[in-house]
Amino acid sequence: MSFTRPASDILSHLEQVASPEDPAFEGSVTIAHPGMAAISLGDNTDRRVLGSALEQLGLSVHLLQPGDFASADLRTYELVLTSPALARQAHNRLGEHPLQDAAAYPAVVSICAPDQDAGAASGSDAAITLPQDPAALLAQLSVILYAHRAFARRYQSAMEELRLNRRIFRSVTSGISVADVTKPDMPLTYVNPAFEVMTGYSLEEVVGRNCRFLQRNERDQPGVALLRKAIANQEQTTAVLRNFRRDGTSFWNELVISPIRNRDGELTHYVGIQNDVTARMEFEAALRQSEKLAAVNRLAATMAHEINNPLESVMNLLFLAQHETDPERLKHYISEADNEVRRIAVITTESLRFYRQSTRPRAVDCDDLLTSVLDLYAPKLSRFNIEVVHHRRAHAPVVCLESEVRQVVSNMVRNAIDAMRADAGRLEVRTRVRTDWKSGLRGVALTFADTGTGMSADVLRKLFTPFFTTKGDAGTGLGLWVSSNIVERHRGHIAVRSSQNPRWAGTVFTVFLPFDGVREMPSQDSLLPAAESLLSGL
Length: 538
Ligand code: ADP
Fold this sequence. Notes:
Layout: E1 2-3, H1 7-15, E2 36-40, H2 44-56, E3 60-63, H3 66-69, E4 79-82, H4 84-95, E5 107-112, E6 126-129, H5 134-171, E7 175-180, E8 188-191, H6 193-199, H7 203-206, H8 222-232, E9 237-244, E10 250-261, E11 267-276, H9 278-322, H10 327-355, E12 362-364, H11 366-383, E13 386-391, E14 398-400, H12 402-420, E15 425-435, E16 442-450, H13 457-462, H14 479-489, E17 493-499, E18 506-514, H15 524-527, H16 532-537
Parallel strand pairs: 2-3, 2-4, 4-5, 5-6, 13-15
Antiparallel strand pairs: 1-6, 7-8, 7-11, 9-10, 10-11, 12-14, 15-16, 16-18, 17-18
Bound molecules: adenosine-5'-diphosphate.
């Protein structure tokens, strides 16, 4: 006896079915017609011997004439025993049915003569040589039946598992796509109904195509680069892409791709799970936009207020000058008015500087920059009786995006003022050249030491978190978050120490900027809150 078609062939074929939409999943799976056997043999002796063995195995036996064999529906039997030639014919006929009926196939057994060679039985599931001892024949037939039933059960449970997977794939609301990595250009082999709804493309339209068609001409998105890198390294990743539906409208697609490997560990497929995150992206953009508008609003209000005071003085001085006859006093009024007008000019120039977007790094003297920011805050510092000491020890310029660094400095000074406004205090500002022990980079450290309220451990922990503020409506909680982003982009860092001990309360911020650390052009977004620090500072 020999098995000519191992059941594992069919099972492994099933495992390789990549798409749950494959017809293999359709149809019902049954272990067909247990207990029926058909014998079609010319030789009566063989039929009798086989018939009695099969009956001992509990099978009811149908004898088919070779003439009936061609028209009989062999799928109604569990076992078919016949000559090698008819077995091949049976096999071909059964093969005409799609794979899903495999469990309903009978085991086709060739009955060979002792002098027939094994090749004659190819095309059948097993071969038995007759005549032979009845006990041996019974044993062989029971093994064949056992193997056939075991295979049918395994087939059925594998099929049920796959069908369950298909139901899951079909019912999830996230889009699912499967791409074949083994084929050129990684074509899609499957997409689920949620993918079809999300993109407007049907399964038939996308199968065989690389999924890049969803990006249309927008190929140089950062998310695409992320996906390419992950695929090259056979890794999982998440990226947000701007994709286009079939009708041309765009949507934001948050895509998670994961590599799928076969039993030998070789990468065969990538599965993608995608969600339409357009609403979330629009909300975030609106939030950024409203922050920007709020900043512009506050800038306008503060500037109007700050300009109004010197403007009123100018008007008063001009009124006095108009009615003054003494040349000395007239000169004095005009000189005073000139000072006030200059003050207005400083305010507008500095404000505009915040809006001038740095796109090109340039060499900046940190002490000059500190002086210009401190000048801007001079009225406020003196209003709150804050003494300022500036130690200048940076002897070389730092290549940086000037307006961004100005924003950081301004934020540090404004926070120090806020921490000291309730009481008089002292702000010490220092620069010095230093080597950063972590990165080994040389640069300038800017230190801002105030004698303000200091911070609790809890505040220190949340300091750089966006929107964290202890100032209620007066704060935005964006200052230090934006500052740390800017400094990191310059390959620098911010350190902070603080104490609330009544005897030495205060805070020291140190901003380290490498001499040549700036890495990239600032993005539009990073500049949005650029006016923030100035606004509440004035
Ligand atoms: P905002 O100033 O709008 O609150 P920041 O991000 O600049 O936003 O600061 C966050 C918080 O950090 C402040 O609300 C304050 O509690 C604390 N903080 C920052 N600098 C100082 C400082 N020099 N002294 C005391 N607290 C400070």
